[in-house]
Amino acid sequence: MKSAQFRLDSNITWQYRLVLAIGITAVFVLIGPFGTFEGMQFGTRLTYWFVKVGVADVVVSFTHRLTDPRLNGQTRLHRLLFRAFIFIVVYAPITWLWSCLFESRLMSPMGFGFFLLNDCALTIVLFILAYYLCSDEADFIGQHPQLYDRLVDKTSAGIIRLAVNDHFVEVFLDDGTTQRLRMRLSDAVREMDHAPGFCTHRSHWVSRTHIVKAVKEDGREFVVLTDGAKVPVSKTYRENVQAAGFV
């Protein structure tokens, strides 16, 4: 089953997300679920679903940023269930209020309950599809990249970041230790294989799952990692941090 999966990477570009949102909107506009085909003209239906899909995209990004630091070590099923719960808690009230603008009868506790059941059903379907058809970043955490074979002191600790120091690459691990490898950063990054992460600077690579937040100090940008380190973000690589949703 693993070979049939594709990776659901939260580090995707806004252009890809826009195209995906337009495609999903088109499907909902043409199908018109939940009575929207019969009850709305084409233009109204297009506006209604484009906003709902757009809000869903924003809430999904928020859900990942909120839950990723808290779900390390959890199974994929637990991660998806927790994300689905957070998603529906945030998404349902927002889109219920939006829907009330088009259908006033929803503006009641019973109307909200009916709306919530519809959104829950749709969310369950989508997350079941995600579980069976997609893999996410955390699925790769337990798979040691090639770079581990170069470490002198063998370890199962996770790699937090890589940093250039003269002709060496320093490997910072989540057990608090550091190992040095005589190689180029570009080669070290290539040997990280599918591990979720990216360069923030020509001398730094960071694991996305260990990013806590991005900060700005004295006009310079940094990402703060789980070990407390502040790694600089250069203009050249800023788009990587931006695509990951941290700036």
Description:
This protein is of the alpha+beta class. It has two domains: 2-139, no CATH class; 146-243, LytTr DNA-binding domain (OB fold (Dihydrolipoamide Acetyltransferase, E2P)). The chain is 45% helix and 20% strand. It has helices at 14-31, 36-39, 42-67, 76-100, 109-133, 185-190, 238-243, and strands at residues 6-8, 134-136, 159-165, 168-173, 178-181, 197-201, 204-207, 211-217, 220-225, 230-233. A hairpin with a 2-residue loop joins strand 8 and strand 9. It is elongated. The relative contact order is 0.11.
Kindly summarize this structure in a few lines.
This protein is α+β, with helices and mostly antiparallel strands and 247 residues long. The chain has helices at 14-31, 36-39, 42-67, 76-100, 109-133, 185-190, 238-243; strands at residues 6-8, 134-136, 159-165, 168-173, 178-181, 197-201, 204-207, 211-217, 220-225, 230-233.
